[in-house]
Amino acid sequence: MRVRPLALLSIAAASLIVLAGCSSSSTSTSTTSSAVDLCDATAASGAASEAVSVTGDVGQAPTVTFTSPLDVGDTQETTVVVAGTGAALADGDYLTYAYTAYDADTGEQLDAGGYDPALDPQAITGSSVILGPALGCATVGTRVVTTYPATSSSSAVVFVIDVLAAVAGDEWCQPVSPATGAAFPTVTWNDDGSPSVTVPTTETAPTSVTEQVLTQGDGDTVASGDSVTVNYQLATWADGTVVETSWGSTAATFATTDVVAGFGNALIGQQVGTSVLVVVPPDCGYSSTSTSDMAGQTLVFVISIESVTAS
Question: Is-contact 309 256, C-beta < 8 A?
Fold first, then answer.
């Protein structure tokens, strides 16, 4: 079974995107509060962040000017350039954002991302490095300048960050039932108990995690973080090719939080003995920025829950 991949970062962007840990494809939903309140985490505005001039529309690459070298000091600072009118961020939200990064010493643009194409959403908490102090509980549509001090391995950085969208943590990658009349894979069972799946490859795949119960079990119920043993088969929506299966070999055992979010969340609330058919879009599986050979693919899982051990 493929364990979740960590986000791979360019050197220039690394200090920003470690902000929340892993990419959206790397974690299941967690409702655990961070040790630091998100609103309280917001860095104060200061001379360095206020010295940066930013023009342009939120969601578009900005025009940024400042006099270099910029004295960033040893404390992160944040100045709101545009106050958004959307919902305020909350601890555990999955955030979609865009950013541009500059070397504070030279003024050179180091990196940018999230304008087109979009970055994978990431969870934000009060303990998130850089993003927590940069944004706090800012509203969707907000643009900020945040200045981040030099470290032993990199110079100080100036970031311009746009808050583009947010989804509550307890809603992220949660499975829904197939829409009435929508194209959806079908499953038949072979004599040896293994599944055969037919994927409507010429039809548009679901954009949300979509789950259908094939057989209903009556055993213990799976909770988030539990260790589960399952048989599973993985195919791609693009051509229906089966790329992995545990039937005929060894069932897989893992925690629901140690696999891609769409897979793990599909198991939560199900009972041992249940078989499910799950379609997982890239945002909740292996995104286009993942290093997996499944990157950017819509995945089709048939899963049979064999046993569960409470966390």
Answer: no
End-to-end Cα distance, the chain: 19
Closest C-alpha among 127, 126, 144 to residue 78 = 144
Q: How far is Cα 142 from Cα 59, in angstroms, rounded to an integer?
A: 10
Q: How far is 43 from 92, CA to CA, in rounded Å?
A: 18
pLDDT tens for 52-63 read 999 999 999 999
| Per-residue model confidence as pLDDT tens digits over 206-238 | 999 999 999 999 999 999 889 999 999 999 999
Which residues, at least 6 apart from 152, have a Cβ–Cβ distance to it below 8 Å? none
Q: Are 235 and 245 in contact (CB under 8 A)?
A: no
* Topology annotation, domain 14-171: Chitinase A; domain 3 (3.10.50)
In the CATH hierarchy, which top-level class contains the domain 186-309?
A: alpha beta
Report the predicted TM-score, pTM, of the whole model to 2 decimal places.
Answer: 0.68
- In total, the chain counts a number of residues equal to 311
